[in-house]
Amino acid sequence: MSSKPKTAKDPRDVYALHGKAHLHNAPVEEYQPPAQAVPPEPKASPPESPSAPTTRQPLTLRSVQEILGMTFPAADIVWKSGYLAKGERAVWCGMGGVGKSRLVTQMAVSTRLGQTFLGWPTDGKDLRWLFLQTENGNRRLQADLSAMMEHLTEGDLQSVSDGIMFHTLESDTDDIVWLDKPNSYQAIESAILESKADIVVFDPLRDFTTGNLNDDGDMAEVLALLGQVTKKGNPQRIPLVIHHAGTGKGGIAKATGYDRSSFGRNSKVLFGWTRSQINLAPAFPDSNDVLIVASGKNNNATEFPPFAIRLDPHSMMYDRDDSFDVSKWEGRVSGDAASKPDVDALVNLVREAGGKMDKKAAVEKLRELHATKRDAEEMVKTALQSHLREVKEKRSGMRDAVLLAIR
User: Fold this and answer.
1) Which residue segment(s) compose the domain that 127 sits in?
2) What per-residue string of b and e applies to 33-72 under the rule 16 or more CB within 10 Å gives b?
3) Is 400 in the same domain as 366?
4) Residue 353, SS3 per DSSP
């Protein structure tokens, strides 16, 4: 026979202890509820988000006549192309390492000096820039800035230095910039207010949240926090977001054309949030020296057709290269073009150039046709054994030019 339980844990134990006849008279104190029946301790409420203000201003409302009577300073449009305007959100998208940070730094320098930027007039010599960045160390920043500043006058250098500030990576918390964490949010807010910035660059967006940017809710949250912290104390302050795009040939192909709005990661939310977007993509598979600049969105003006820019390795600044055939590039990356060029293609290039062509220019043309630099140089060597020959051409005061000529 089984022994009787010492305590009653369920009705069967009550039967065993007291028998059915005494079921209704069983002592209540002898019944012990199972451990899992004890309700769990209530969880502590999550900490209040830095985006949840205790008070806020009421919504601003205007009548039709009030809106019609408004006037706006021309200087509100920092770039006359409409891609940078006071109080409005801007986004630059590109693959990692393509040159986004360097190009936006050049943009800040050109704007501070009142110079054109990639052919666009600027109007923002008095605007102050703050770069909140987490990727480039001081050595890389110094290398780029030294090259960019080399030919500036003392006055221009002072103007640039007075108006551009970088967040640098020196302490063990400098790379912690999560806007969804109160301490980091407050540090960013203080940096913006203390710098008196008019334009705040967030580079890259990925590092300003602990959330998943592929999730619509997390993306919407970080963009809301970013907009809020930027405009604290100055509704005309501009948030300029640098964001990563998709990789590989498929991702690059989205830089232009019908898919240009989906170039950035989780672009659906980002595209709805921003007022303007510029897409950057490499022109060649093995180099970022030549980039394609394309419009992703512009709510303020007509979008521009895509064009190419080329990096000057001495000044570390980019210039437009209108000789580059962007339409052919689009065909290559979209898969609509023919296969990579061969020796016959090289011979045709020389023939079309009048029978002679600069050797370096020929290599560049082959790369534009989607050949790698190594493949292009190999094609030149092969062609020199059969179809072409090298010719040296004297140039006054310069090194002799090396030309490829039809045999």
Assistant:
1) 76-332
2) eeeeeeeeeeeeeeeeebbeeeeeeeeeeeeeeeeeeeee
3) yes
4) coil
Q: Identify the domain boundary among 311, 332, 353.
A: 332
Do residues 295 and 120 lie in contact, with contact meaning Cβ atoms separated by under 8 Å?
no
pLDDT averaged over every residue in the chain: 87
Residue 119 scores a pLDDT above 80: yes
How do residues 219-233 score in pLDDT, each as one tens digit? Answer: 999 999 999 999 999
| pTM: predicted TM-score of the whole model, two decimal places | 0.72
Report yes or no: 121 and 79 within 8 Å, Cβ to Cβ: yes
Q: What is the pLDDT of residue 46?
A: 44
Report the pLDDT value the prediction gives residue 45, as an integer from 0 to 100.
46
Other CB atoms within 10 A of residue 348 CB: 11
| Residue 262: closest CA among 222, 217, 296 | 296
- Residues 88, 122 contacting (CB under 8 angstroms): no
Report which DSSP code applies to 183: H
* pLDDT of 26 above 70: no
Cross-strand partners of 391: 403
- Each residue of 311-342: pLDDT tens digit? 999 999 999 999 888 988 888 888 755 556 78
Both tokens of 125, joined, read 């010599």
Nearest to 324 by CA among 356, 370, 355: 370
201 with 185, same domain: the answer is yes
Q: How many domains does the chain have?
A: 3
